[in-house]
Amino acid sequence: MGRVCGRQEGTTIALQRVAMTMVALLPQQLNVAPLGEALGVPEDGDAMAQEHEEKLQKLMEEAETFVQIKGGKKPRVLMVEWLDPLFLGTKGWMREIVEAAGGQVVETLDGEMNEEVDVVILALCGLSLGKTEQELLEGHVGPWWQALLDRTGDAPVPPVYIVDGTSMFTRPTRRLLVALEWLVHVLHEPDSSWLERSEFPYKIFDRTATMIPADQAASEDKARGEMKSPEMLEIEELHRLACENKQAMYTDPATGYSVMTTYILKERQVCCGNGCRHCPYGHANVKDPSRRKNKLAGDVFLKPRRRSKGIAKDAPGGQLLWPERVKDTSAGSGDSRNLVVVFWSGGKDSFLALSFLYEAYAAEHKPMPKVVLLTTIDPDTNVVPIQNISAQTIAAQAEALELPLCLVAVGLGDAYTSAVRSALHKIPGQMRPRKKNGKTSEENEAASSVAAVVFGDLHLEDIRAWREQTFGHDFQLRFPVWQKDYQSELLPSLKELCAKTGATISFSNVDTERLGSDTEWRVGQEYDWKQIKQRNEAAAAGAAQVDLMGECGEFHTCVKFPGMI
Predict the structure, then answer these.
(1) Whether residue 193 is found in the same domain as residue 81
(2) Rounded mean pLDDT of the chain?
(3) Which of 8, 182, 356, 436 makes the best surface tag, with the fewest CB within 10 Å?
(4) Which of 3-7, 73-77, 313-317, 550-554 has the lowest average pLDDT?
(5) Helices 92-100 and 42-69 sit at what angle, rounded to 10 degrees?
(6) pTM metric for this prediction
(7) 449-473 burial, b for 16+ CB within 10 Å, e for fewer?
(8) Helix (H, G, I), strand (E, B) or coil at 87
(9) Are residue 424 and residue 396 in the same domain, yes or no?
(10) Residues 256 and 348 occupy one common structural domain
């Protein structure tokens, strides 16, 4: 163990011969300040130490809150540093990290295993995640392992988490804080969306798995570790520090090239389409699908990259849908315009809702509102849930309408409400004027509040009631197309809209079982309500009718404007 983790005599002698100073740090604690002094940058060392301390306190407070919610009960954690012979992480920072995460350290498995275990963490020193899993599958483990898995009685078999111990737990680097943050969520909310989105290198061990060949395990290890190599971890650390310091660039350690940070890309509020390494917009404007590497993370704000000829840069956008017969009564005066957020699915219903919203403002002789489109994107698939429209298509629609777009990375799970509500509250700040350097203008610092949130619901009472209960306390809600007659109002309006804008409507998702097999229904097919009406008329007596607008989920649509691929 000394040859692996300790200071080797040969290395010490060699350093003495070249008169190089060797700094030895205690393995029980992370000494950043002395390291800064040794490197000649004491201020940086002190600043980093302070930053780490603040992060540590924040995570410990979060863990303590979780423990209090559970009545003070702390999960019992078996931290394993070696499989056979069994070596438990009960000392040093391995112990401290468990306790800081709100856990209780399991001291031993000797005797009759009278000490219960709630969670097992395999953080083997010197082994990668894939190699650790291979060791388990090939049985390179002591008798304690099977005894743990064969437990009977009321106590359930604890979940087993395999981690990259060498990179994340056993070295005195800032990654210990990253590991602590992960452990807080594992111990107290293992089913949370935080873990689903996290890129922390871990895997839950499948206790039903059978032995796999060593070469296959190595191949899987390579695939899993491809994004978390030591080089990539170094890049992530450099990028994180640059963002925290609000820097536009950092230097790639391998190439020496300057790389733009997520911070500056978010400040610019534009996806340039060049496939930037840290693009926060999920490469929304990258045309070549093979170059779209990034997925959306968090919520981001995109402003239109260009305006139509003759349209002022500070215009609210949406002129394509503003009634031609009505002149905007407040051209050039942004302060008098309402800030309105439209839930934008990318389909015909939200298209109609936006158009009817403009019609209502024009009819009331109000200034054209500042509209922001809001779309939720599943971060795992990079498409709108259920609607099956890509983030790239949504961004192209916003570009065509010349409207700003807020993309929220969330699926349809428990995190949906909080993520959307958070995004809604951030939008006013995102709409503040920015200088060329990306900073918010000091003038007109007060952000306009959201005057209304708009939905394209047609007639489903339960959906509307849920929206009112969820968002109605914080915002005024508007439903411009609610309970309007299909054949006398909505469908004729949709036809006029398509003629006016040159847009086409096609299916983005179809439920072939509900639509029936008599006619071919496919994604990409042009939406024709008359064809659906014919289907209903030809259906047998008593057969379920298909909603002409697909409001009951029979199909979903996508709007495509001229120039969109």
Answers:
(1) yes
(2) 81
(3) 436
(4) 3-7
(5) 50
(6) 0.58
(7) ebeebbbbbbbeeeebeebeeebee
(8) strand
(9) yes
(10) no
> Between residues 85 and 213, which one has the greater pLDDT?
85
Query: CA 259 to CA 252: how far, in whole Å?
Result: 7
Helix (H) or strand (E) holding 339: strand 339-343
Poorest-pLDDT segment among 7-16, 32-41, 265-274, 556-565: 7-16
Q: Is residue 554 part of a domain?
A: yes
Residues 412 and 499 in one domain: no
The three-class DSSP label of residue 337 is coil
| Token pair in block for residue 236 | 């992530």
Residues 452 and 499 in one domain: no
Number of structural domains found in the chain: 4
**Alpha carbons 226 and 251: distance in angstroms, whole number:** 21
Strand order in the sheet with 477-478: 299-302, 405-409, 370-377, 339-343, 450-454, 477-478
11 C-beta neighbours (distance < 10 Å), count: 10
Say whether both 383 and 510 belong to one domain.
no
Residue 14 has pLDDT above 70, yes or no: no
What are the tens digits of pLDDT across the range 224-258?
444 456 677 778 888 888 888 888 888 888 777 78
3-state secondary structure of 417: helix
Question: Residue 370, by phi and psi: left (phi above 0), alpha (psi -120 to 50) or beta?
Answer: beta
Q: Are 497 and 474 part of one and the same domain? A: no
CB 295 within 8 A of CB 282: yes
- Could you tell me how many residues make up the chain? 565
Residue indicated by tokens 């099956």: 388
In this model, does residue 444 exceed pLDDT 90? no
Query: Taking the C-alpha atoms of 328, 332, 333 and 335 in order, what is their torsion angle to the nearest 10 degrees?
Result: 110
What phi-psi label fits residue 468: left (phi over 0), alpha (psi between -120 and 50 degrees) or beta?
A: alpha
User: Measured at the alpha carbon of residue 549, what is the angle toward residues 420 and 499, in degrees to the nearest 5?
Assistant: 95
Beta strand spans in 410-499 (E) = 450-454, 477-478
The CATH number assigned to the domain holding 320 equals: 3.40.50.620
Give the domain range for residue 103.
Answer: 72-204
CA distance 24 to 38: 11
Q: How far is CA 162 from the centre of its chain?
A: 23
Domain boundary among 148, 178, 204: 204
- Both tokens of 416, joined, read 């949906």
User: Which CATH number does the domain housing residue 102 bear?
Assistant: 3.40.50
Q: Residue 443: what pLDDT?
A: 42
Same structural domain, 107 and 146: yes
Domain contains 53 = no
CA distance 266 to 430: 10
pLDDT at 111: 54
CB-CB contact of 285 with 394 (8 Å): no
Distance CA(376)–CA(391), nearest Å, equals 9
Which of 204, 222, 255 is the last residue before a domain boundary? Answer: 204
Confidence of residue 281 (pLDDT cuts 50, 70, 90): confident
